[in-house]
Amino acid sequence: MSSQITRDAVLAALGQVLDPGLKKDLVSLGMIKDLSVDGSEVNFTINLTTPACPLKKTIKQNAENAVLAVDGVSAVNIEMSAEVPAGQKKAEYGFIKNSVAIASGKGGVGKSTVAVNVAVALAQSGARVGLLDADIYGPNIPTMMGVDAIGGATENKKILPAEAYGVKVMSIGFMVRPEQAIIWRGPLLHSAIQQFVNDVEWGELDYLIIDLPPGTGDVQLSLSQTLDLQGGVIVTLPQKVSLDDARRGLNMFQKLGVPVFGVVENMSHLELPNGESMDIFGSGGGKALAAETGVPFIGEIPIDQAVRVGGDNGIPVIISHPDAPVSQSLRAIAEDIAAKVSVEAYKRS
Ligand code: ADP
What we know:
CATH architecture of the largest domain: 3-Layer(aba) Sandwich
Radius of gyration: 22 Å
Bound molecules: adenosine-5'-diphosphate
Order of helices and strands: HEEEEHEEHEHEEEEHHHEHEHEEHEHHH
Distance between the termini: 46 Å
């Protein structure tokens, strides 16, 4: 005869299962919800801190194994859910739970490509995502997302963002002609940035992904003064000149007090049709830079023509070729960023 299973025994077992990102157990983190014991069956929900959790399957499996090991348990039914915590502590911007800036030392390294595909990947996982194109030198997010205007205005005269692939999109390109924004300086740029946050009806967002202009300057400063940024990501090419620029980008985040999530190396190699990999710009530079500066290496992205074609046609590669190696890399990068946001939000709680 099986012994009576108690909730305490189940919770004690789950108290041994860690969230590897947050390095605490599921019970102390308050992630176990709706626990019920029905004869020899145990049912509960694990409420993660992001729907894009890279270790979702592992956590579920570990929880299942732990509870199955409790005396008398014959079956375990686990539902997975997620509630993204707010790292953003400025009460007036509470509707943006977390914001992450994507930066680069120079243009043309794939910063916007990363911003777009990360935003779409997070939205596909079920998160509420906004994408803010603050690149005054080349606001190309609308082209890459296949949108060309704002979504209209609300009754109280707020701007409705455009929407594509489940992502709310706002671009400096919707507001001014490109040649205008480039000549803006400090105060004017600062008020434009504030407008992006204050006058846009974002609704509640789990993540706001921001495409910064390349280099270091007023936009970076204004954004970090306006929003309590959770993290910055630096995109670089593998070759030395690009890495030198990326190093300056890292310094900028550090000076602004924005936590550096890490380095992404784009165009790190070319995947040949026969499955071989060919270095074009050399590879490994991003990893070396991360090691040298003591920041995490987030991942590398291969060169794939489908990225450029998708960018030009307004269909992000993660949508047009979801299973291609390049899309798998981009999805893993999005998940890593989501996990780092959770850790940062947890630190701030
Ligand atoms: P940035 O925002 O840094 O200026 P973009 O994201 O606009 O750079 O990318 C520059 C160009 O390179 C675009 O045409 C884009 O489609 C292309 N591109 C970016 N990453 C890749 C990649 N991994 N493979 C192929 N083309 C890429």
